[in-house]
Amino acid sequence: MPTCIAPTCIALIVAGGSGQRFGAERPKQYLELAGKPVLRRTVEAFLSHPQVTGVRVVIDPTWREAYDAAVAGLGLPDPVAGGASRQDSVRNGLEALAAADGAPDLVLIHDAARPLIDAATIGAVIDALETTPGAIAAVPVADTLKRGSGNGGAGAIAGTVDREGLWRAQTPQGFRFPAIVEAHRAAAGLSLTDDAAVAERAGLAVALVPSKEDNFKVTTPDDLTRATRAIMSSLWDVRTGSGFDVHRFTDGDFVTLCGLRVPHDHGLEGHSDADVGLHALTDAILGALAAGDIGSHFPPTDPRWRGADSAKFLRHAADLVAERGGVIAHADVTIICERPKVGPHRAAMAERIAQILGIEVGRVSVKATTTEQLGFTGRREGIAAQAVATIRLPG
């Protein structure tokens, strides 16, 4: 029997908008959503889909640095510069795909600000393209529609609109690639509402694929809150892990605590930078994952970790949580020592931990205590730390 070769399919993510309606300092696609930038969540949804061959993003070059940070480590090709309008940006993206070696058979055009797109809808849009040149995700209109008589449509009711057969268009909007490229070229200079309208103008049939209400576009701060709630409600496997670490004093003039260099009349002895705070927190996160301990991931016998920045260890633990589709909900570190005084550095330590973990600083607590001059810490022979971490994983 002949072998059936699956069509190549590229997801073109449109992320060139300025997000003026959102009112933030940066475009909404670069804002944090449950521990990840909105854009990254959108891109990962398509990268993880078995029917999607690759992802290309269209951006405003002004925000290239924010883009690079948002998609770091995903191995994406260089982004495409957007245009003056969304339609121009999509056309630029399509032209970039056409100019690349091996243009795709299919293309999915998706808004970066729709991060909750699900795998089933993506697959349904792709499958529909077997029998039609275009297909879009859409939701049937459920509410009664009224037409207003006032300026801008407000004011008194002028009539009721029959909702029979009406759908709310979403993305992804999928097309056979050669047809949509030509349709966009022919529509250059026009102002059409979406890519389906571009296809309709060219005479292409476009199918409606039922989607989900969660596939909404993040446009306002309330939308971001709604998206956060949707994500967190799916992460119902709540886990807590604890960690403990000790390092003895040695010669030196500073100690490293929670990612900061703190002046002191001694240093701390250890294979890495001997950061007891980060070591304890790393173990706490690994414990919540049931993923061993810091020594199993970074053996003290391995010369690669001699003098290493412990932020690498903590970032590794956070990455393991992200790989499981989870988030770090809270981190609590307690430093146990007589000296140096931790109080003046607590806020900076919390900020540094939050930066390493990629979470809000309000989810990090750093405390300090003494042992009332009892034990090895009371005798000022070293420093200890204990930590607790709470994570949420998909059920």
Automatic annotation (TrEMBL):
It catalyses: 2-C-methyl-D-erythritol 4-phosphate + CTP + H(+) = 4-CDP-2-C-methyl-D-erythritol + diphosphate; 4-CDP-2-C-methyl-D-erythritol 2-phosphate = 2-C-methyl-D-erythritol 2,4-cyclic diphosphate + CMP. It comes from the Bacteria. PROSITE patterns: ISPD, ISPF. The keyword Transferase applies. Gene3D superfamilies: 2-C-methyl-D-erythritol 2,4-cyclodiphosphate synthase, Spore Coat Polysaccharide Biosynthesis Protein SpsA, Chain A. The record marks R163, K217 as: Positions MEP for the nucleophilic attack. Residues 239-395 are annotated as: 2-C-methyl-D-erythritol 2,4-cyclodiphosphate synthase. Keywords: Isoprene biosynthesis, Lyase, Metal-binding, Multifunctional enzyme, Nucleotidyltransferase, Transferase. The keyword Nucleotidyltransferase applies. In the C-terminal section; belongs to the IspF family. In the N-terminal section; belongs to the IspD/TarI cytidylyltransferase family. IspD subfamily. A divalent metal cation binds at D245, H247, H279. Its cofactor is a divalent metal cation. The record marks R21, K28, H271, T370 as: Transition state stabilizer. Pathway: Isoprenoid biosynthesis; isopentenyl diphosphate biosynthesis via DXP pathway; isopentenyl diphosphate from 1-deoxy-D-xylulose 5-phosphate: step 4/6; Isoprenoid biosynthesis; isopentenyl diphosphate biosynthesis via DXP pathway; isopentenyl diphosphate from 1-deoxy-D-xylulose 5-phosphate: step 2/6. This is Bifunctional enzyme IspD/IspF. One of its GO terms (biological process) is isopentenyl diphosphate biosynthetic process, methylerythritol 4-phosphate pathway. Residues 239-391 form the 2-C-methyl-D-erythritol 2,4-cyclodiphosphate synthase domain. Residues 1-238 are annotated as: 2-C-methyl-D-erythritol 4-phosphate cytidylyltransferase. Bifunctional enzyme that catalyzes the formation of 4-diphosphocytidyl-2-C-methyl-D-erythritol from CTP and 2-C-methyl-D-erythritol 4-phosphate (MEP) (IspD), and catalyzes the conversion of 4-diphosphocytidyl-2-C-methyl-D-erythritol 2-phosphate (CDP-ME2P) to 2-C-methyl-D-erythritol 2,4-cyclodiphosphate (ME-CPP) with a corresponding release of cytidine 5-monophosphate (CMP) (IspF). Its EC number is 2.7.7.60, 4.6.1.12. 4-CDP-2-C-methyl-D-erythritol 2-phosphate binds at D245, V246, H247, H271, S272, D293, I294, G295, T369, T370, T371, E372, F376, R379. One of its GO terms (molecular function) is 2-C-methyl-D-erythritol 4-phosphate cytidylyltransferase activity. Coiled coil: none annotated.
